[in-house]
Amino acid sequence: MKRKLILTITVMAVGCMGLAFTSVQQTKPWPVPDKDAKAINPVKPNGESIAAGKALYGQHCASCHGKKGLGDGSKAAQLKTQPEDMSQSKLQSQSDGSLFYKISAGRDDMPSFKKKIPDAEDLWSVVNYLRTLKK
């Protein structure tokens, strides 16, 4: 009986630590250097740019962030952290420069797209497309 109680308490403690670690992972701040955060998007958010950004998003981002940017892509469940919901104000309130930096640099489950999308204009077009996902 005493062993069962100790085992139960141990299992519960390990489970709580796992949940605590997961929530810390999901809310960990992602600092962006000031010069990058203040960068101005040189690509106008016109139809051509948004269409190009949408195509690149579909090719590189939708598998994790979902087709509509809700963080519900087919690979989302396999990740250690929940992909960002692109429609929420938490993302939409960030500067274009911050989004560009995060897409370029990557972190943890979010890969760097510096080499996958090497043209800076294309990355800025992805940022323009992300703005269309705002609720």
Structure description:
The chain is an all-alpha fold. 55% of the residues lie in helices and 0% in strands. The chain has seven helices and no strands. The protein has helices at residues 2-27, 34-37, 47-60, 62-65, 89-92, 96-105, 120-131.
Structure annotation, total helices: 7
| Class per helix and strand makeup | mainly alpha
Q: Percent helix among the residues?
A: 40-55%
Residue share in β-strands? under 5%
By DSSP, the count of extended strands is 0
Poorly predicted ranges: 19-25
The N- and C-terminal alpha carbons lie at a distance of 54 Å
Instruction: Round the mean pLDDT to the nearest integer and report it.
Output: 88
Question: How does the major sheet shape up?
Answer: none
Rg from C-alpha positions?
19 Å
Order of helices and strands: HHHHHHH
Which term fits the overall shape? Answer: elongated
